[in-house]
Write a structure and sequence with these properties.
The complex is a heterodimer of chains A (579) and B (194). Chain A is of the alpha/beta class. Chain A contains 23 helices and 20 strands. The longest helix of chain B has 13 residues. The chains are: A alpha/beta (579), B alpha+beta (194).
Chain lengths: 579, 194
């Protein structure tokens, strides 16, 4: 009896065409075959052979030199999110590689397809504490979907084809390939075949029809159904399928921060944002619905609030491509695992055409309350102090909801997500799961490169922008036409808000000074302006958006404004506070 | 209720697998009681046997996280009743005291131990069994000056398993069969019935 089972993926017959090339040339050829157009990176000792070859490839492959490796990942994330393609990052060993960590963690938790290539010391030096040697594979193991260290150029084609396949298939995520310097210069016979199967990896689980039927039955019996959706709809390119589904069932749909833009902001069934700073109605009614239908979302604690008081009355249907998400936080009565691009049409076919007018009326009533108590105040403030909300409102008026909005993390992020209008999918770029301050500016650079024809606006705070402000240099050098809208309240606003509400106003180290952003931008050849009063706010916003090329507009907003509604930590979603 | 679970994982034979799997436990602050990793009966595939004490819910979530790893083919978890398991102990004891004071034949017979090395100054015994049996022999040898003891990690055969060869062939197919599912939840926990 033979126990041998060949591992097919690594033993594929070489394709007809083989060429004798160096590892570095092979890598760049593979990039071209995988459709890569832009690289974000930073050179250094251990990746120099690759950069040397890149010198001759700079025409088909555009390399963007960032100012810090962390930003290369964020830029790749912005690129991937708006384009739906895989972002590619190059960095050197040691500090170059460790600087990627925050970006990788962000891409992991937000399921962004990224392939990172890091240089590594010569293979014989591994483990000797060589100059700029660091064990990046192990450092990044929990924050990569997959990683591999190449020490021999012969491995390059098989490993890189797997890397691209893994990064973008199934639930996407970051992949890190560490490649020793000797493998970059080693010559070998190169042939390439794209990977479409790995025996130990199923990108999506097989759809179980009986569960789809069970789910449809539940939806058909529901009096008060509520759909909560996340980025899965966008990653699955299932926006149309999703729309048909909710329209047929007349199902109110609320989104997570990463699900934003999958459904038109003005769609009548769009009932708003979930979670800590989400809208009043979907939060309160989560605890009143009878069937909760979760689509491509993972019940993050910022969405659910206190778990033991989350939708306890409801039957839960959970559609997700990642089986590990089922039952992770919220127990699903009916798990519909699979790609929602497939499962949503199956469900739509089985559900009855329904009207839930009375139930939808409840959303409207609560929305009206929210509007009276908090939204109107935020969008049309009665004091002279400028609010973040009114800036976003005017921005909407000018863009008509067509722009890509990239946000950083904090109060401005919540305000932008709450109030920015979206007419197209893949238009919202933000750091949702990790909450990475400093994400906005570099991600906007990538977003602009991923969608050059679109207006890209980075909405950032005065704290976050200072974490990655060096990327103004990247914008300058590569002439990237992003619009930078700094909402400056002279505080680390979200932390200050918590200090005000829960720590008796002890503003412990949240008062932050900033440079003159306009002058600073000017030194990078980026034109800009500052707005301190309402009378020229609209004109300045228009000026920024009419400007060709990059532009920075700083708006001085109210120092101690708070973001409401808010579900205080440890509270149930239905205990959401309007003020 | 927490109890002992034996997790069986089939993985590709790759550098760094132990670390990737260990991370899944350590980030949740779960201690691994036993860890055995060795080549399986199928070439190129390693079999891990991991024992932890956890609740059913926790171990189910863990196993899904394990299966999510790209290089993991399949992961299962079982209670003690669902497996046949053994541990092994090796005991190094001074020859003098043991031959003078103990009826070695009785020892070998009663405890199912085997002498696997006999030297002038020490004897190495080996025994396999459940944890209690291995421990009992430690207690027995202690008064006679037990020099060294080592316990081998648990290995377990799954009662309902029908082996992994056929499973691997299914994995190698690009299109899984209609009734073939991986990464899914064992409905009744029975093995290979997914």
């Amino acid at each position: 009896m033979s126990l041998e089972v060949q591992e097919t993926e690594t033993k594929k017959e070489a394709a007809a065409e083989t060429r004798n090339v160096t590892g570095s040339e092979a890598i760049l050829e593979i990039f071209l075959k995988e459709g890569v157009e832009v690289l974000f990176g930073y050179p250094g000792g251990a990746i120099m052979p690759l950069y040397d070859v890149l010198y001759h490839y700079n025409d088909p492959l555009r390399h963007i030199l960032v100012r810090h490796e962390q930003c290369s990942v964020h830029a790749a994330q912005g690129y991937a999110t708006v384009s739906g393609k895989t972002g590619v990052v190059l960095a050197t060993s040691g500090p170059g590689a460790t600087n990627l960590v925050t970006g990788l963690a962000d891409a992991m938790i937000d399921s962004t397809p990224i392939v990172c290539l890091t240089g590594q010391v010569f293979a014989p030096l591994l483990g000797t504490d060589a100059f700029q040697e660091t064990d990046i594979i192990n450092i990044t193991s929990p924050i990569t979907k997959w990683s591999y260290q190449i020490t021999d150029a012969e491995e390059i084609p098989a490993v890189l084809s797997k890397a691209f396949y893994i990064a973008r298939s199934g639930r996407p995520g970051p992949v890190l390939i560490d490649i020793t310097k000797n493998a970059q210069v080693q010559k070998f016979d190169f042939a390439y075949e794209k990977c479409d199967h790995i025996r130990s990896y199923r990108p999506k689980p097989v759809v179980r029809k009986e569960y789809v039927e069970e789910a449809a039955k539940l939806i058909n019996s529901a009096q008060k159904p509520l759909v909560v959706f996340g980025q899965g709809v966008i990653l699955g390119n299932a926006e149309e399928e999703f729309k048909k589904f909710i329209e047929k069932g007349d199902l109110p749909a609320a989104w997570t921060v990463l699900g934003l833009s999958a459904l038109h902001s003005d769609h009548p069934l769009n009932v708003g944002m979930l979670g800590m700073h989400g809208n009043y109605a979907p939060n309160v009614l989560t605890n009143e619905c009878d069937v909760l239908i979760a689509v491509g979302m993972r019940f993050d604690d910022r969405v659910t609030g206190r778990l033991d008081k989350y939708a306890k009355q409801a039957k839960v249907i959970h559609l997700d491509i990642d089986p590990a998400e089922i039952d992770k936080n919220v127990k699903a009565d009916v798990p519909v695992w699979g790609d929602c691009k497939e499962t949503l049409p199956m469900l739509t076919q089985l559900i009855e055409e329904r009207k839930h007018s009375e139930w939808l009326q409840q959303f409207e009533e609560l929305a009206k309350q929210e509007d009276e108590i908090c939204i109107r105040k935020e969008l049309y403030p009665e004091t002279e102090i400028l609010s973040m909300g009114e800036v976003i409102r005017i921005m909407n008026d000018i863009t008509g909801g067509d722009a890509v909005i990239v946000t950083d993390v904090g109060q401005h992020q919540m305000v932008a997500c709450r109030y920015a209008k979206f007419t197209k999918s893949k238009s919202n770029v933000t750091s949702g799961g990790l909450g990475t301050m400093g994400f906005g500016l570099p991600a906007a650079i990538g977003a602009k490169l991923g969608a050059p024809e679109r207006e890209v606006i980075a909405v950032v705070g005065d704290g976050g922008i200072q974490m990655t402000i060096q990327e103004l240099g990247t914008i300058m050098q590569n002439q990237i036409g992003v619009k930078i809208l700094v909402l400056n309240n002279h505080y680390l606003g979200m932390v200050r808000q918590w200090q005000e509400l829960f720590m008796e106003r002890r503003y412990s180290f949240t008062d932050i000074e900033s440079p003159d952003f306009v002058k600073l931008a000017d030194s990078y050849n980026i034109p800009g302006a500052r707005v301190e009063t309402r009378d020229n706010l609209k004109a300045e916003l228009e000026k920024m958006l009419n400007h060709k090329g990059s532009y920075l507009l700083e708006v001085k907003v109210g120092r101690e404004n708070n973001v409401f509604p808010m579900v205080p930590q440890g509270c149930s979603v239905s205990e959401i506070r309007l003020s | 209720m927490k109890q002992e679970y034996t997790i069986t994982v089939y993985t590709e034979d790759r550098v760094g697998m132990v670390g990737r799997l260990a991370n899944i436990f350590s980030r949740r602050k779960i201690n691994i009681e036993y860890l055995n990793t060795a080549p399986s009966e199928v070439q190129g595939i390693h079999r891990f046997t991991i024992v932890i004490v956890e609740t059913h819910e926790a171990v189910q979530k863990l196993v899904r996280q394990i299966e999510k790893q790209v290089d993991v083919l399949k992961a299962y978890f079982h209670t003690e009743e669902e497996i046949i398991w053994q541990e092994m102990g090796m005991y190094k004891v001074p020859s003098e005291s043991i031959t003078e004071k103990v009826k070695v034949e009785r020892l070998l017979h009663e405890y199912g131990a085997r002498a696997i090395a006999i030297r002038k100054d020490y004897i190495v015994f080996e025994a396999t069994g459940h944890k209690e049996e291995i421990d009992r022999l430690v207690k027995f040898f202690e008064p006679y000056g037990l020099i060294e003891f080592v316990r081998g990690a648990r290995v377990a055969i799954i009662k309902k398993s029908s082996g992994f060869h056929e499973k691997v062939k299914e994995f190698e197919r690009k299109q899984p069969a209609e009734n073939f599912e991986i990464n899914t939840i064992p409905v009744d926990q029975s093995v290979f019935s997914l």
